[in-house]
Amino acid sequence: xxxxxxxxxxxxxxxxxxxxxxxxxxxxxxxxxxxxxxxxxxxxxxxxxxxxxxxxxxxxxxxxxxxxxxxxxxxxxxxxxxxxxxxxxxxxxxxxxxxxxxxxxxxxxxxxxxxxxxxxxxxxxxxxxxxxxxxxxxxxxxxxxxxxxxxxxxxxxxxxxxxxxxxxxxxxxxxxxxxxxxxxxxxxxxxxxxxxxxxxxxxxxxxxxxxxxxxxxxxxxxxxxxxxxxxxxxxxxxxxxxxxxxxxxxxxxxxxxxxxxxxxxxxxxxxxxxxxxxxxxxxxxxxxxxxxxxxxxxxxxxxxxxxxxxxxxxxxxxxxxxxxxxxxxxxxxxxxxxxxxxxxxxxxxxxxxxxxxxxxxxxxxxxxxxxxxxxxxxxxxxxxxxxxx
Length: 389
What we know:
By secondary structure, the chain is of the alpha+beta class. Helices cover 33% and strands 23% of the residues. It contains 14 helices and 20 strands. The strands form six sheets. The chain has a six-stranded mixed β-sheet with strand order 7-8-9-13-11-10, with helices on one face. Strands 17-16-18-19-20 form a five-stranded mixed β-sheet, sandwiched between helices. A three-stranded antiparallel β-sheet has the order 1-6-5, with helices on one face. The chain is elongated.
């Protein structure tokens, strides 16, 4: 599977750590291409093996996307499929079929209709495998199918060129495997049920794109805010959310931040949350005490150094410091400190983590930090946490 870009200056590859990796196209671009192919067959009785679509970028870029199949249905509509190609980016939607069924009908006053001076209308709906939004705070209203604004506009722009006077173009976007793979996405946590979302702000998937992953986390914050909370709990993953819930915190008030602590703190700052509690394992959050706000081990892994430095500042004996250094895991080192009665070291690290996190966002938000062990038990928490929880 491959696609071509018609503008020579724009390269379909990018270099990542010295490797040449292929870009892909988004679910939104796939849905747009499928729509265009179906409309070509419906209106012109012809469709090629590829269709060109414009990208929603500042430059006028166009991509040529392969069509998997395109055919008439018994009711006079036309269906086309595109195979989602994420390039060299790992994505659960890669290789799935994204379909569009189109049909001309007499003008109807749909709620989601583009109408121009020629009385031409376009109606876009989601079908099988497209999730339904059930919670506020997302870019799509509650009760609607999860087709985001940019892909929706891309589809409308394509459909306008096939409009016929006095008729509506009914467009249904669907993904046969959407419901099956939705549990592998963030959709369940975002309150999108029954399928995947049609996404994409540029139409292009950047391989190994950390930015795309970070952006996918942000809608959780919008949901928390839409529900009226001014305090949000950030935790690395689903396990942390479930642990918070076991302590009585509503799941809807918790947000997965992965390794992107600094990025998510900045997003909380933009949204003017009053309080943020960072909740996670000591091996992850101890890095904040050293001013590390991207916690992936390949970016920065100074956990034991941070622990030993703080231990030394709190007059832990030199022989115990060497024992800490020789432990295989940070969890074992922490346990050793606890066994020797130096819980103060963990408490100080928690306080430093909270202080540095607050400094990171210019002290515009109150910050609390909670360290957990690998069993989900609280090891230490900053004093500020007790004020709110």
